[in-house]
Every structure is written in C-alpha cells, then in structure tokens.
C-alpha cells in the first residue's frame, strides 16, 4: 500500500498546498527541486525524471526523496498530477510547446535557420500566462482586493526590478482615480524612509517574483508589523510574500529560457485598477 494513496489523485492546487505546507522543512536540495517543478510545470509534466535530474544537477534518487518527503511513492506520481493539469486546465498545451522551447535553445546554439522565431515563442508563452491567470484568479479574490484598497487610508505600491513596471502602472492609474497612492520607488536610496510612512489602516500592494528581492520582503514585513494590509502578486505558494499577505494572486509562472513574462501580472493590475473605478458597473468590450 502506498504512503498516501489519495495523493496520486490530487489536483495541482491540492499538490501545491501540500508542498507549501512542507516547504520550510525540506532540505536545501529538495527545495531546489520544488522550485524547479513550480517554475517549470510543462517540463515537469513532459520530461523524464532523468532529464529533470540532469538539468538540476542532482541524482535521480533525489527526485524520489523529494516525492517521498511529500508522502508520494515516487516522482512519477507527481508528474502524473502535472500531466493531468496540462490536459484539464490548459488544453492548448502539448508536447510541441516544450519541444519548441528546446528547439529555440538548440537552434540558437547551432545557428539553424529553421529554428522557431523568438517572437512566436514569446507570444505563445504570454498567451499561456494569460490562460493561467484565468484559471488561477477568482472573482472573489478580485472583489476582496478591491474592497481592501477602497477602505485603506493610503495605498503603497512596491515592485523592484522586473516587477517595477507593475507598481508604476498601478500608481499611474490610481493617481488618475484621485486615490491616495504612493509609489515606493526608493529613489536616492530612500526606500527605508518611504516605508516609515506606512501605518495601520494602510494597504501595501507588492509584486515580487524569483529571486524575490530581499528589500521587498523586508518592506512587506515592516508594513505588516505596523498593521497595514498586504496584497501580493507572485508566482507560487512557496513564495516568501505569501505568508505575509492578507490577499495574494498567483500569476506569471511561465518562463522561456529563464525569462519570466509579466503579461499576466500587468493584466491583473489593469483589472484591479479599473475595478476600483467601476463602482459595481459592468465593463463592456468596445
């Protein structure tokens, strides 16, 4: 009998909850495996265990230990969950997607003239990110976030590096809605001084993705300690910002050769901003 026969039939969401609950107790190497499979769900579903182990520079037995740490018999059971999700949630996916990414890498290295155009690969990746967003974000989550923002005394927006455009866009939109929004941009090294303004009754909207900037997590912790609400946009349940958040959204899990799209996050930011100004009115497409 398996360690937990029910786990083999878990949905991806149920698996993610199990992983999030066990993540802190995993060894450094097993955490590395966990981050890989969450960042690369397509490859996890389609690659062999040996191929994944090679990419991670670990022994195949490490994948088995990872699975057993989550009460699965073997890594193949975890892969079945990812394959099932691929079919049920994202029917547009196929092995061809993963193959095209590999062809892109190989074609660039070998100078093949028939390598897929890089624009096509990123168009497909961004399309997949938007499809993911549709399945991950619920109307209730959006409503909760919008109501939290509306009831806040002040709204602080934070995003560093590639997440900065998200915070900047939200700041622009909210200021145009005459909301008390403040962009924590840290210009001149003044981030710590800007954070001192955050207090009880305020809300911090933060976007952060791997490698999760330490200063961003630090600001979120300070804001929470001061009694502010935290709304986060990040990529997975094991993100360090999730534990600090009152409301969180999981977006933009898709990467291409290490480049992460922010298409889903920007779409979410747009929905939040426009939702703040709708006052319950229905939005129609022109």
UniProtKB/TrEMBL annotation:
Under CDD domains, the record lists:
SIS_RpiR (cd05013)
Q: Which UniProt keywords apply?
A: DNA-binding, Transcription, Transcription regulation
Under the heading Gene3D superfamilies, the entry gives:
Glucose-6-phosphate isomerase like protein, domain 1, Winged helix-like DNA-binding domain superfamily/Winged helix DNA-binding domain
Which BP terms in the Gene Ontology apply to this protein?
A: carbohydrate derivative metabolic process
Q: Where is the HTH rpiR-type domain?
A: 13-89
Coiled-coil features, chain-numbered ranges: none
What are the SIS domain coordinates in residue numbering?
145-283
A Pfam family hit: HTH_6
Q: Which GO terms describe its molecular function?
A: carbohydrate derivative binding; DNA binding; DNA-binding transcription factor activity
What is the protein named? Transcriptional regulator, RpiR family
Originating species: Kordiimonas lacus
Instruction: Provide the taxonomic classification.
Output: Bacteria, Pseudomonadati, Pseudomonadota, Alphaproteobacteria, Kordiimonadales
């Amino acid at each position: 009998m398996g360690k937990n026969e029910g786990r083999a039939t878990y949905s991806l969401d149920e698996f993610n909850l199990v992983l999030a609950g066990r993540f802190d107790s995993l060894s450094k190497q097993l955490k590395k495996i966990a981050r890989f499979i969450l960042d690369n769900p397509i490859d996890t579903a389609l690659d062999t265990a040996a191929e994944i182990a090679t990419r991670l520079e670990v022994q195949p037995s490490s994948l088995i230990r990872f699975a057993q740490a989550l009460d699965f018999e073997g890594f193949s059971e975890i892969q079945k969950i990812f394959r099932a999700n691929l079919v049920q949630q994202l029917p547009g996916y196929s092995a061809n997607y993963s193959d095209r990414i590999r062809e892109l890498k190989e074609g660039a290295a070998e100078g093949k003239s028939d390598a897929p155009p890089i624009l096509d690969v990123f168009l497909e990746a961004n399309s997949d990110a938007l499809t993911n967003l549709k399945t991950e974000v619920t109307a209730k989550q959006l409503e909760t976030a919008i109501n939290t923002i509306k009831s806040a005394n002040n709204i602080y927006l934070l995003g560093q590096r590639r997440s900065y455009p998200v915070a900047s866009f939200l700041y622009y939109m909210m200021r145009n809605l005459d909301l008390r929004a403040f962009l924590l941009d840290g210009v001149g090294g003044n981030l710590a001084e800007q954070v001192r303004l955050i207090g009880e009754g305020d809300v911090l909207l933060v976007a952060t993705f791997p490698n999760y900037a330490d200063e961003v997590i630090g600001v979120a912790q300070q804001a929470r300690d001061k009694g502010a609400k935290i709304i986060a946009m990040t990529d997975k349940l094991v993100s360090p910002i999730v534990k600090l958040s009152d409301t969180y959204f999981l977006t933009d899990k898709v990467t291409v050769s290490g480049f992460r799209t922010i298409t889903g996050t920007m779409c979410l930011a747009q929905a939040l901003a426009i939702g703040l100004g709708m006052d319950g009115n229905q939005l129609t497409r022109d």
